[in-house]
Structure formats: C-alpha cells, structure tokens
Amino acid sequence: MSSSASEMRFGMVIDVDKCTGCGACSVACMSENNVGVLPDETDKIRSITWLRVYQIDNGQPYPNTQIAFFPRPCQHCAGSQGHHTPCVSVCPATATDRDPKTGIVSQIPTRCIGCRYCVAACPYHARYFNWYDVPWPEGMDKPLSPFVAPRMRGVVEKCTFCFHRYQRAQNKAFTSGEAMGEMDYQTACTEACPSGAITFGDLNNPEHKVHELKKSPYAFRLLERLHTDTAVYYVSAREWVRRQADNYLSGEKLAKVQAGGGH
Amino acid sequence: MDDSKFWPKGTTRCKPVHFGLWMLFCLALAGWALVSAFLCLYKGLNQTNMNDYFAFGVWIVVDLAIIALGAGAFFTGFMNYVLRREELKNIINAAVIIGFICYSGAIMMLGIDIGQPIRGWFGFWHANVHSMLTEVMFCITTYLIVLIVEFVPLILENRQINKVPDLHFFAHNLHTIMIVFAATGTFLSFFHQGSLGGMYGVLYARPFAARGGVLIWPWTFFLFILSAIAAGPSFTTSIVMITEIVTGKKLTTHKVKMLMAKVSGSLLLFYLVLKIADTLYWAFVQTPAMGLSPSVYYQAPYGTWLLIAELGIGGVLPCILLLSPQVRESYWILLLAMLLNCFGVTMNRFVMTIQSLAVPVLPFEKFYAYLPTWQEWGISAGVIAYGFIIFSLAYRYLPVFPQETKLNPTTD
What we know:
The structure holds two protein chains of two kinds. By secondary structure, chain A is of the alpha+beta class.
C-alpha cells in the first residue's frame, strides 16, 4: 500500500537541530508502553528501546567537532516503487500489519511466533526481540499502563506511535461527535520532548503542522535510497547531518540523491 | 546380543559392541543437544549469542545448509522416477534417508529457534501469503510428509518386518506409486529451496541480501534452487562414499557415483555462471546505486576471503574437478570434489545469513560480529548426531543399497 492511497498518514517531523539528546522521549516511551528494564541493560544489542537516540558527530577533531542526535522510533514505512513495508511483508504469521487508514505499522505480540524475520528485514533496527523474561520487581507492576499489554519472552515488539492513544482519541471523537483534532492524538515522546524537537500529526492533513514541516528544504528521511517511504522526517540545516541519514559514495553529492521534502 | 537376523539378507555388519560404542558416541552428542535445547526452551533464547542485530545465527545457517544438502533426495528421485535414470535406483534409498534426516532435523531445530515454539502453527493458521517464510513452512512440512512416505517402504523391507504379508504388500504397493510422490516432492522442493533464497532476496532494505528479480521472485530464489540441486547429489554421494570407507564395503558401483558427480558438476557450472553474473551486477551496479561500495560489505572478520571460499574453493574448483572425466574416475579426488561442492553451498548459506545481518545499513551504525554459544553449537551438533543415528540404523537394518550383496559376496 503506497502512502498516497492512505486516508491519513500519521508521522513525525523531528528537528535534529533542536534535539539535545536528553533522552526524555525514550523514557516517556518506555513508561507509556510498559517497556521493562532487563537484568543487564549494558547489553545494548539486546536491550529494548522503542525510541532510541543515536549520537552522531561530524568526524572532525576538536575544536571543530559537532554532534547531533537522531531520535529513532519505528519509521512506519509504507514502501514505495513496488515494495511493501519491509517487515510486514515478511512476517509468516501476519503478526504485524500496516493499517492503510492511518499508515501505522502495528505489532501483535500475542500472535508473534518469534522467528525474528522482521528484525532481519528492518534496516533501522527499530524492532526488538524479547530475549529475556522482563523482570517486574515487587511493586514495579503498579505503575504499568493498563492500555498496553506487557510483552512476554520470545516475541518481537516495536514503536506503535502510541496506537492506544489513537484509539482513545477516536473514542473521544465518537462520544463528543466532533472530529479528531491534531492535539487529540499525540505520542508520548512528542509530549515529553522539552525542546519541542518532535512534531507529530497527519502528514496528509494540511491543517496539521507536520504537513508543512516536512516540506522544509532541510527535511529528509533515513535511508531514502532504499525506497522504504518512511513516515518519520528529520530536519537539519547542517549538511553533514543530512548526509549521515543515508549512504553516499565518496565524492557523491548530497543534492543528487536527496529526496526529502515530499512523499 | 546377536542382531544378525535383522540385517539385510546376504549382508554382514560390524559387531554389536562396535555398533553400540558408535551409538553411545552419537547419543553423547545428542545429550549435549538435549541439555542445550532444555536451556533454550526453559530460560529462553538469551542462552544464545543472537541479538537484535544477529536475529538469525548458526541454527539458520545449519538449517539452510542441510536443506540444500538434502536436495539430493528430491533431485535424485526426480532423475530416477521421472527422468527414468534407472541406474540411480542404486543410490535413491540413501538419498531419501539423507533427505529425511536433513528435513526432519531442520524442522526440529527451527522448533528451538523460534521464540514461541508453541505458536509454531500460527504460520499455517494466520498465514501471510506475501511472506517467503510462509511458503517455506508449508512446503518443508508437506515435503517432509512426502519423504516419510518414501522412507516407509524401505523400513518395511527390513528382513523381519517384511515377513508380515500385509506389510510386505503395502510396501510393494507404495513402491509402485512412488513416481507420484517423487513428482510431488520435486514440485514442493523446487519451491521451498527457492523460497529460502527468496527470503533473503526480498529484504530490499538490506543491501547485502537484496536482489532484483522477475515478478515476485528475486534472483536468489533461482540461485538457491540451482545451488541446492548442484550440491544435493554431491552430498548424497559423499555420504555413501564415507559409509563405504567406514564399513570397508563397496555399496554402489563407481559408475553410479560418476553419474551423480557429472550431474552435480553440470548443475554447478550452470549455477556458477548465473551466480557470478549476479555477483558482478550486485557489486558494480546495485550496490553503488544504494550509495555503498562493496568494500563496506567485507569487513573483518567477514572479509573477502568469504567470497573466495564460497565461489572459488567451494565453487569453481569443485566444478572443474567434477566435470573432469579423469577426476571422476579417481575415488578420493571425486570425494574431495564433492565435499568441496557441499562446502561451497554451506558457505553461501552462511554468507547470506550472517554477513547480510552483519553489514550495517544506517551510516551511523556499527559493524558487529557474532560467535555462537556452546548451546547453539550443541543443538547444531545434535542434528548431526541425529543424522548419524538414523543413517547408521538404516544402514545396519535396512536394505539401503541394492548392489551391496553383489558387490560384497559373503560365504553365508
């Protein structure tokens, strides 16, 4: 399903130049979605962070060193040029799906068989396998959110754009009889970001801020050249940041392959 | 304990004590696998060294390798029953047993490999028709049933079981309709060997694995079929030859082995031409279009030596050897060539699985390496032990090789 056929397409525009790398988005995400703390959180290739914040630098020595941060939720790819969403098309048990109405890629942990084929298919490392039973120490189960089921060992999980919040906003709209507004559905990370780097909304809706922001000449997406057609846009006025969003041959100009700004 | 009355008529076998010691060794390996399997099922896949970067590990490599090597079963069956190469009836039983071992072993391994083994059937119940893995699950399972049907008549031909008239006739009748199963097996096998390759080719966001193709099938679909049917007959024949060396007997004529070698070599040549063309296009056209240079793919420890090992030592070299009539005449060089062919296909499955996942796609990601834990090795060794046990029991008690009595006359 290509994005153009979606009624709505929820997505983000993340201003990399505003992100301070504080990690509040990650923490808010974990709390909102009942992501547990594993016995060994130093093992970063097994720990679960639905929204991981990558730190990058411009590779220059001091005093010319610059750093930037890429908060990376699931990119909710639509796939383009004849491709499906990379992870959705490979799952043998239909445990993940892309909702054409919202553009959100869902995950059904209770149907996941744990084959991890989707993990292999995702180039963004946005999918996490539960290698361990998540220990919920005495009392730590009390603040669990009742809206998101905790996952069991042996299944894959990932960012859902806080889909339960979308459902709640829909319920509110239904009972009030009014249309769902932009601010009725916002993800936990968007609300938690202290510098306002994350903007969330319907990319197809001209009334939503993201619709305009994604048209910025400085907007880009991660790995555009792979035609994954992601729903997460980044903005940075710094060219070296934009260049690190994709792979380029040495000497290849950024502008030549830059496809950001439209979808 | 004398078990000679169960041996195939007119044959001799090693002493029960020797056989028992060999079985004990195999059972020790199987015990290692059982401990590993228990730990993985009880404590979870954290007992392995797989992680969110290496979502697949040595088990998938072994799975893909043994399924490719087990292709000797369907392809020999196809040549014997469908193409009517009668001389291959002298090796078809061994091919079926090896195929059965490979496929059942792979399925058992997958049962440990998935995070929720109890939900394994969801792939059938909630099948996603777009997934290559769904097709693999369906075809491997149904083909295993075909292999069981092909294996049953051989079991029923055991000297004692065959004395039961009903079972004797049942086995005979199964034999007469075996062409139906051979044809079904060929159809199923072609598709799942291809789908296993397709599994990687469709990963369009993983530049190392991704390939173009025709309609819904990436080129890896066809390359996996070809490499499997090139290596399968070599594997079957090399197992027969190793059995000959271990038992000190001649089990098939050398003519049969040479025919298998010629088939293997010809298919390997066909495969290599396409594989090299595919590799060149992938390295010099597809990869730069994604903004990458092939050097990104080959970083320590997964250097270009892998390419040389796979396509050179495990490809071009055995191809030359297998297509050379003089080499085919020589028992030992023939065996070496066939083993090299098997090595090549195993390397291909390793590279497509492990190297595909090692290569970072995001420019700011790291290049990781992976080493299996003893539990992962244990389960891999267990599949090999399982193969040893089934093949040893089959050889001892079933008339696997029709030419054995003629080639090894006894005084009994």
